[in-house]
Amino acid sequence: MSCRLVGERESVQQLSQSLLLLLLTGGHGVSLPEPGRYATGIFFLDKTHHQETEQLFDDLAAEHNLKVARGSEPFMRQVFIAAPEDIDDATFRKKVWVNRKQATHNLLRPGCRFYICSLSTTTVVYKGQLTSDQFWVYFGDLNNPNFSTYMALVHTRFSTNTFPSWERAHPLRLMAHNGEINTLRGNVNLMKAREGVMKSAEYGDELTKLYPVVEPNLSDSGAVDCCLEFLVMAGGRSLPEAIMTMVPEAWQNDDLMNSEKRDFYRWSACAMEPWDGPALMTFTDGRYIGAILDRNGLRPSRYYVTKDRVLVMASEVGVYDTEPENILQKGRLKPGRMLLVDTLEKLVTKDEELKLQIARSRPHSQWIQEQFTMEDLYAAHEGDLTSEPSLTNGHVNGAINGEENGGIMRTFGGDRRLCMFGYTLETLNMLLLPMVTTQKEALGSMGNDAPLACLSQFQPLIYDYFKQLFAQVTNPPIDPFRPEANILEPSAKQCHRIFLENPMLSLQDLEVIKATKYRGWSTYVVDITYPVSEGTSGLVPALDRIAAESCKAAEDGYQILVLSDRKGGSDRLPVNALMALGVTHHYLIEERQRMKVGIILETGEAREVHQMCVLLGYGADAICPYLVFETMNSLRSEGVITLANKEIFKNYISAMERGISKVMAKMGISTLQSYKGAQIFEAVGISEEIINKCFKGTASRIGGVTFETLANEAFERHALSYGDRECDTMVLRNPGFYHWRSGGEKHMNDPVSIANLQVESASEIVKRFATGAMSFGSISIEAHTTLAIAMNRVGAKSNTGEGGENADRYIDQDPEFNKRSAIKQVASGRFGVTAAYLANADDLQIKMAQGAKPGEGGELPGYKVSEDIANTRHSVAGVGLISPPPHHDIYSIEDLAELIYDLKCANPNARISVKLVSEVGVGVVASGVAKGKAEHITISGHDGGTGASSWTGIKSAGLPWELGISETHQTLVLNNLRSRIVLQADGQIRCGMDVIIAGLLGADEIGFSTAPLIVMGCTMMRKCHLNTCPVGIATQDPVLRKKFEGKPEHVVNYLFMLAEEVRELMASVGVRKFQELVGRTDLLRARDSCSTKVNLLDFNLILKNALHMRPGVNIVGGSVKQDFGLETHLDQEILKEVEPLLNGTTDTVTVNTTIHNEVRAFGTTLSYHIALKYGEEGLPDNSIQINLAGSAGQSFCAFLAKGVTGLSGGEVVIYPQKDLPEDYKTEANIIVGNVCLYGATSGSAFFRGMAAERFCVRNSGAVAVVEGVGDHGCEYMTGGCVLILGQTGRNFAAGMSGGIAYVLDPSSEFPRKCNQQTVELLPLELSDDLVFVEDLLRQFHDKTGSQVFPYEYQRALRQLAEKEAAVQVTPEKAKVEVKPEPTVCDIEESVTDTAMEKKRLEKILDKTRGFVKYKRETAMYRSAEKRQKDWDEIYNVDSVRRGLRVQAARCMDCGVPFCQSSHGCPLGNIIPKWNDLIFNNNWKEALGQLLQTNNFPEFTGRVCPAPCEGACVLGINELPVTIKNIECSIIDHAFEQGWIKPEPPVLRTGKKVAVVGSGPAGLAAAHQLNKAGHLVTVFERNDRAGGLLQYGIPTMKLSKEVVQRRVNLMKDEGIMFKTNVNVGKDISAKDLQEEYDALLLCLGATWPRDLPIANRQLEGIHFAMAFLETWQKKQMGNTIDHTTLTAKDKDVIVIGGGDTGCDCIGTSLRQGAKSITTFEILPQPPPSRGRDNPWPTFPRVFKVDYGHEEVKVKFGRDPREYSTLTKEFLDDGTGKVAGVRAVTVEWTKDESGRWKMNEVEGSEKVYKADLVLLAMGFLGPERYIVNELEMEQDPRSNICTPDGKYVTSVDKVFAAGDCRRGQSLVVWAINEGRQAAREVDTYLMDTSTLPLSGGVVQITQKG
Ligand code: SF4
Ligand code: SF4
How many other CB atoms are found less than 10 A from the CB of residue 67? Predict the structure, then answer.
């Protein structure tokens, strides 16, 4: 922009009157009226229709009494409109405008081009799709010497548009801008909505002809231009005021702002929301010309005023050549500030003066009194309500119309609505509780590997289908929150609105709003529920009704609409609040009613940050999440939290505010007002019908769920809560959306896939592989280097991540163990980015966004910053490191292009890569990036990321890489840019098929992150953010790092296995080379799915073959090189001059030369050569002295090496020319621009003059002296030193965590400008500091020419000496309190803790590091000496309970709890949850969790061999968590407390089920079937129920009272037990089959394995089970002769090991055996896991069970003889057994790898024996029932059922337990019984309310 401030008005006008006169009068004989009495403009038309269109335009002009004259330019027409005699200038101007608007609205027809560039009495727009050079040639006017103008506004853009067009070039009718308006969609929607309330006395009815104010399909600048013009032409605003309204300053928190100005902003905020985004906006109406910078100042804007009265402003210096002595002033626009030139008055008006003028133009301060707040409403209610937030308002637990929910259903908190609204346990535990207790959202890590909502089978809410968009190349930080009438006529009416502190309302607030009549306001409540009886088809009519009712209420004059789902309950189903809002918001906009009402949501559904964001983004004004508050109330009454109402509300709101701010910041939006309705989301998997009705304008690329699908799922959720049949739900449902859990949502990283990746186990293909960016900092150095070595070995690339890399990793590496990362990342933090780091890279990757938290900054907490990390990152160990939000340094594609160029200069041999995140529009961004000369682009998916982030970030930002890759590939091909770019896909890619799909969709290369980590041992604990990774990968804890066992070979093997799989797949589609695969979408098709939901997805857009869109284009990525033009760079000349120095022939070189602003990145390539040769050390100081004169281009001295006198070691001195005029104040003039010294790592800089915004951001080592800085100085600084001898801007030192700033503060304003959150201000008084500062000042003085301007420094020195005027800023020292390690005492004598005890234990117990601190308690039995003398249970109950919480503290609550996996607990017991609850002393809830999956924990807690413990993650390198004891204690405690009571079902179905067998499977099945309401009869052939539990397991392991207690309970619940009935013998199985609706066989495997060897018939040889059963019966008091079957005084030999063998030992011992020996045929197991027995399989290791220990105590030796084969029983001569002859065997593997047993010669031995017990297992069920029912059997003689099913070959007959699956564990039998019951229930009722394995209830509605 430029303008001339001299001359007479007539001679300087923007329309070049002289030229026009010459051309028109001279050339065409057309006379031209006086300026102002005609309008001219340029139209874009098309060849075919232009005449027709021109005629139509003439007609339209005639209607306005205007006459058009026309020139002869084909297709582009310049028209002239003359003013009629009878109207004044102003009226003429308006008519011309109306004429143009109407023409634009009416004349555009399909296929017919019509666009008016401008039509104005004062300005003319020349624009086109032209390069800057072409422009001047194309528009001959501009080259004509007669063309003159007093001002010009020029805009050229770096076109990122996919298909740029003439029309979409900048509008320039009133404005041009450099940047982005991120809130556009909302602004445009709201403008449309305002049309309903706008009125204009001036335009009257004609106003509607101007609608839509913003024409459709405009670019963002086009839309801004329309609105701005409208405010000026119809809204009574001057151009500067209209600009102030649309682009306000950050006024809300600026205490320094003039109050009148603030009042103006406050008033104008009521009229219109800001058009927000990073932008420098320039504007002119022909008289005024000016510019304004966005509130965050994210764009540079520099201006000069010259002595010859010219003002030039541009986004950089040097665009206008003038002699330095001609310059009067050099300045820059500050954030939110405006510069205005009035060309008529020839005045430059400064911001403050101008804005005050405007602020005082109306009584704004008075008008804003009309605003009111919640306090006013409360006051109006005169004390009948308090303003204290309430958590209940009479609706607790959904008591609606007398319907009480609490306590009826055994759900968490007893509230049925939780399930209906989709609450899960994770919602409470992982999201809400952290929010209300810590005021923050909880963090997660390791990305999102759960399915998208459109693939989930667990009824996700619609919010989950929306993904947050974020700015890929713009991301300003934002200021905190704050939260219509006719805007055309400014008045107090605009303020007649309620001002809310934030958008979240308490229950009380809402009640007040509903009841208010304050100032005539009234509220209308729209019920957004509908009758359940209407079924799924009721949804759409309900939406229509909601929209229509809302519209009527608006028309009827209500001011507030409350959309309420309060009535949701058993009879009424809530419409999803988001859909209800969306449909209402859009309907009201269409009907032009939206601005008349505020919309408040009263919803039980929304509770999470993401959900609130979506609601706000689709137009909600405020939200009352009532169910959150009510649930917290319930949790408090249950003792889970202890907070008061006020705290709960405050904490939740504050966490919500932070969360929402973060999401807004990702998009670069600063105010909530602008975010509202901005619709910054992309939908994944939603059909067009829903989008069109509720979310108009939202991208949804793959179609998906319909209204019917969502209605079905809502009904399913409703059925879970209010279904006719009670669900078997003890706890709130938890399908595991965040952490994997058994039976729940699928996760890519489930235990099976993790275990598969960890088994041990194509060279061109692997070269296409790279590891994703994981910083050394986020993972341990061991893990990081292992990855690098592996990737180097296979010729692939590893990535440093953003943490830098120590020089010792890239210099002189052994090729076999090369730790150098080929890809070096450059992120916004610039951690460790030195010249040497850059010089030693193959790829330099700019991180624009990241997988873990797209759009957010990162933070490495102090406890993770070890010495190594601090050194690498140039900071201090123990001090946290904050990365600025990504792209803090990059605000536009131009900035990105600059960084690409800088990096290329910093390493001309490296490939420059840019990492983007998948989202809609990434293709366009990628095109821009390609045009910006990137050579490589990584598209990262939403699911990747290893770092920590808030769950909102992990779950709701970014999209699948598949969408991003296909869009990017297609867009690059369409733009013929594909050949310049190598494209990489990244994000949870793990198998060959993923690689192939990535290739087919367009990827050349593949990045891996999570998979290699898993291969190295990661178990997806998701604890990276806690620094407690138990396998030493994502931790910096030296103790844990020692546990790292990963090897490069693991990764190498994995990559080759993957490559082999890729090869096979390539061969299967006939492709030889990977390149041939790229983009071949024709080879890919969507698989048919069994899920109707999945089948709704439409992949056509993704599967478009880009080559069909633009045939013949080169798509070989990287085959065309980007041209950086480095050969002509000034550095090449310098390099020639310094060659002698680099050759070592001289020590110093001085170069004198000039520079101009086209020389960018000066000194950077020179530094590359120095760094390559001399490494980090560089050259000795001042080796190369370069003296430059002129204005340098951008990135001057970026990454400068040491020894060169910008910055990574060099020295830069910048000062103005020496012969400055006397009145030139350097401290008031800008000498260096924005973002100077960003991320500098070392070196020094001296600037004589001011630096603009963001000086020294992320400086980690440079020393700088400057005379003043703009806003955001020293932000995020981590090291180095800055001396500022003048003014500073606002927000100084925000996020600063290291280094020192010395600031001269003569005006005492600095404390207010400094952000003191992380720093403290100290006076400069320490002598060391004084000496240091003085030395710096002297250097500054010397280097910049102090004789020219010495006084300031002298004054500074004087002041410093007086120790008064300066303050010193040092980052707050981290207070590290060294506390002694707590001693853990077993003080927990009883589990019934008092509150005090609870608090005390919480203090001393550490759950986070419990697994490191506390050892596993191993002594769980009573002493062996004592216990062998009685038959009581062997457990030491007291001791176990005492240490229980310590043991529970060892559980890490794993993200993927292997204890629940298929190798772990067969029931899927929710172990981490109950462990956590026990740790927190919440026994009752722990019980609920336990009973959700396990019917009989009192059995499993005693007899289970605990495979869960074998699979526990802790077991990888420690002793596992003590799970079984905790389980047993929970249930025993529950019985003791009387919590376990009979719970008969509420409803009986009338169906009868017979269960045969009362062992664990039979009992579990009966229990479940009874819960489902069926009448169950259990048949047991013995005299007591319990089967094996009763008679097979001895009392010392399982007391029979425990068994009987359960059986009695079951009887009380209505189950019938028929004992002494041997089905198949006493009664016929067929009769049962007929009599009952279903027959379930749980017969067990009772057919014992025999030992048919010589003398088997001898007396004294018995099956173990007979022995145990006889004794049990005897103990139970049965009349039975046990004398032949007792071990008393006998030599006992037990053949066979296992639990039964051990029970025989324990029983024999107690009976008084003389000796006990057991034979085991297998060899003694090893003490630790063998190679063939890896974790998490059941550990086959040597264990000493209770019996073995007891024998050892009594007889002095372990009874087990291993590798012993029994050959023969020996006869005592009377037919009784007298001994056993046995041999030792040896086990070897044959050629095929099978184990083979050989007898060892000469090893024969005879063992004495009176009693031999055969404990060799069982062969299957007994046959009589099987035979009677003629059932199919499998080859192992078990009852045959289809895979994973329980139904047999016989109608109505089912089988479960050992009779079906073979001999197994009690816990497996219980699981079989539970799952068989679910199948029987489904068979009987068509659907089941019983849970799946893992306890998850899944209801699927029929039809
Ligand atoms: S039932 Fe067995 S496997 Fe399951 S948690 Fe309990 S002890 Fe572990
Ligand atoms: S018991 Fe072990 S595997 Fe299970 S959650 Fe706890 S630490 Fe993880």
Answer: 13
Sort 1361 into a burial class: Cβ within 10 Å, 0-12 / 13-18 / 19+: exposed
Give the CA radius of gyration of the chain: 40
Distance 866 CA to ligand 2 centre (A): 28
Tell me which of 1512, 1527, 1864, 1874 to substitute to probe ligand 1's pocket, judged by most ligand atoms within 8 Å of the beta carbon.
1527
Which of 1500, 1528, 1893 to probe ligand 1 with, by most ligand atoms within 8 A of CB?
1500
DSSP states along 457-502: SS---GGGGEEE---SS-------------TTS-SGGGG-SEE-SS
Euclidean distance between CA atoms 574 and 722, whole angstroms: 13
For residue 1469 and ligand 1, the question of a CB distance below 6 A is answered with yes
Indicate the pairing of strand 1552-1556 with strand 1575-1579. Answer: parallel
DSSP per-residue codes, 946-1007 = -SEEEHHHHHHBS--HHHHHHHHHHHHHHTT-GGG-EEEEESS--SHHHHHHHHHHT-SEEE
SS3 content of the chain, % helix, strand, coil (to 5): 35, 15, 45
- SS (HEC) of 645-712: HHHHHHHHHHHHHHHHHHHHHHCCCCCHHHHCCCCCEEECCECHHHHHHHCCCCEECCECECHHHHHH
Tokens of 646: 């006020």
**Residue corresponding to tokens 């010294």:** 1237
Q: What is the DSSP string of 1540-1581?
A: ------SS----EEEEE--SHHHHHHHHHHHHTT-EEEEE-S
Token pair, residue 478, equals 């934002």
Phi, psi (rounded to 5 degrees) for 284 = -160, 150
Picking from 90, 100, 91, 39, the residue whose alpha carbon sits closest to that of residue 226 is 100
The token pair that represents 327 in the structure block: 């310059």
The three-state DSSP-derived secondary structure of 1845-1873 is: CCECCCCCEEECCHHHHCCCCHHHHHHHH
Q: Is the CB of 1454 under 6 A from ligand 2?
A: yes
Q: In angstroms, rounded to a whole number, what is the distance separating the alpha carbons of residues 809 and 1176?
A: 12
Given a contact cutoff of 8 angstroms between Cβ atoms, the answer to whether 277 and 180 are in contact is yes
Ligand 2 site, residue 1451, Cβ cutoff 6 A = yes
Please name the residue whose Cα sits nearest to atom 4 of ligand 1. 1465
Amino acid sitting at position 1851: D
Query: Do 1567 and 1607 contact (CB within 8 A), yes or no?
Result: no
Residue 1468 CA to ligand 1 centre (angstroms): 8
Q: What is the pTM of this model?
A: 0.80
User: Using CA atoms, how far apart are residues 581 and 1213, in angstroms rounded to an integer?
Assistant: 59
| Sequence-separated (6 or more) residues with CB below 8 Å from residue 354 | 240, 338, 340
Residues 1478 and 1446: their CA atoms lie apart, in Å, by 10
Element (H, E) at 545: helix 539-555
CB of 951 closer than 8 Å to CB of 435: no
Q: What is the mean pLDDT of each run of 10 residues along the chain (1903 residues)?
A: 44 52 60 72 71 74 65 62 86 89 84 82 82 76 82 77 66 82 81 82 85 84 90 89 89 80 87 81 90 80 85 79 79 85 85 89 85 81 60 46 36 74 89 90 76 87 86 42 45 69 87 86 94 96 97 93 94 96 94 88 95 94 93 83 89 91 77 81 94 93 94 92 80 83 84 74 69 77 90 88 82 82 84 86 83 58 76 74 61 81 93 89 88 92 70 80 94 93 90 94 91 88 83 87 89 89 90 92 85 87 89 92 90 90 86 84 89 84 82 79 58 76 73 80 85 84 88 84 87 82 84 82 80 85 55 45 48 36 36 50 76 86 92 89 90 91 92 92 90 96 94 90 95 95 92 97 98 96 95 95 97 97 95 97 94 95 95 90 88 94 96 96 91 86 94 95 96 95 93 88 95 94 93 93 94 96 94 96 92 82 41
φ, ψ at 1476 (rounded to 5°): -65, -40
